[in-house]
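Problem 3 from the worked examples.
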Amino acid sequence: MLLDRKTLLITGGTGSLGKVLVRRVLSGEMGAPKKVIVFSRDEAKQHAMRLSYLHMKVSTDEAIYKNFLKVLEFRIGDVRDYAAVCSAVKSANIVVNAAALKQVPSCEYFPAEAMLTNCMGAANIVRAIGENSYPVSTVVAVSTDKACKPVNVMGMTKALQERIFIAANILNSKTRFIGVRYGNVLASRGSVIPLFHEQISNGGPVTITVPAMTRFLLSLDRAVDTVFAALKTALPGEIYVPNVASATVINLARALIGKRKIKIKTVGIRPGEKMHEVMVSDEEANHCVKRGEFYAIKSMLPEIAGASTERNALTGEFSSAHRILDYPQTVALLERHHLMPGDTVKWDDGELLR
């Protein structure tokens, strides 16, 4: 299987995606890995994650020490630090780059910081592999729909990250650089659903930007499915996009409020927001093909794309305005993922826990 006896490095591995990715990799569904390295700069999150995996099986001291002897290994480091990146990458077969500054307001106020993590961090991974000939077979860049036709700093830096990794295929032909791009993850700490839950529990009002605003919605497991699909079948330079539906913010608010007598307040579009997100642009649709349940955006660079016999899967952009769930469908989606008020859910550092 794909990960049998492989060493997987996850940068930003203590984030929402990283936690679910680690859990599923360790389940063995993609094979039994030799090592899973969680690389991040937050020691508190690493400590909590380490204990959550090990504390129930061994003593506290055993969980904290003997770190490098375990299949799940934690390393403190920052993708901005080239030396730290080299130290982590040199023993990896597969790298998933989930390290990012991803809060839109933070990136708007500190664009240089966003550039250092989202762009220079990517460049450090490429440089480490290229300059040192590390035997990395695949690098997966984790991106966002905000990188498509970006209007905010987070999206702009993520778009550059995509291009840094795609172009890396030319001068690092022994390593396959690919990417995934997806929209809002249901119930991650930065998303609207936990905010609505909190506002509802406090008696309202529930604040929305614009009623007709739409957002793609997918679960963390679906995001991990996208990473796994790309690892299995993506060609160098391709970006995998899940084919998912979207919902309006007004339907999300109405669904979560239900029959409660809670008001909805419209506050307007915030800086750096779009009315509708785009997963595949008009320009990208010209080289976008279908791969099972996913779209694959092929590189525009001829040295990477090569000749293709696959037909384009789209005739225009793939926008959250195109396949919008109605109110009953929105309710059904939230119920399917146990996200209605009253369900036993807990949010912890961006992860939905049960």
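Problem 4, a separate protein:
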Amino acid sequence: MKKLYIIVLLALISSLGFSQNQSAQTSDVIQKTNGEELKGKIVRVTDKEVTFVYNGETAEYLINKSDISRITHSSGRVETFTSSGSSAQTRQQDAVTMSATPADHHNKIAILPFTFIMDSQPGALAIGQKAQQDTYGILSQHSAGYTILDPRTTNATLITAGATPDKIASFTMKQLCDLLGVEYIIDGTVTQSKGYQTATNSSYGNTNVKRDDAEKVKGVSSYGSSNSSAVQRYDVSVSLQIYMDNNANIYNQSHKAFMSNTDGSYSGPLEFLLKRCPLYRK
């Protein structure tokens, strides 16, 4: 009887090991030229691209064949690729490589402090940070499947790394993505300029007539006042760019407020652009 138990136990262990090994082999493995390894399922292969889905996900990503050194198919077949140099013009026409580098960047978003420009001159940093916070507030409610860094963490990380507002332009978007550990970066600009003024004028006057008992006019006194005021109106526009961790720009749009306003509000154009960006979820 004891031998039977041992045989059954060995059979179970062998079956479990086979199952795990079979599960490991069901994934296609892509080895990229930069050393990154991607595991998932290859959906289709064309002359220039490979369509790939991560394990446990449904979103499809395009990977340029020029970025792939080897594919190990789930069947065990190994396919190698030789990368040949291509002209800069040809590379610019390549499809966006929708994959995170490294994998822990996947589906993570950071929002940079916006640039604020007032009458063609750099404006207050506080307004740029307010626009950053507003973007976070809107997108965090419509970003199912994504993780968004809160602005405080983003700004503290940037400052610690030396990417201060006056030096951040010297960093590439890939460097900022690596620094923040994200796949996507949102960068924006709020532009405000003085538009027309609306003026209002008002006046008030009063006249008193003094009479004696015989109703004869003895004197006339009068006084009056006038006021004028002017209200400044502003033209406001917002531009929004989204970059990936391979420096690819996947969204670049601008929108101007439909009507000028008196408080310089940018909320309308900002919400308009966010609702149409590829990271927004209804």
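Solution to problem 4. Residues 18-24, 83-100 have pLDDT under 50 and may be disordered. Helices lie at 2-25, 88-92, 125-139, 151-160, 173-180, 267-275.
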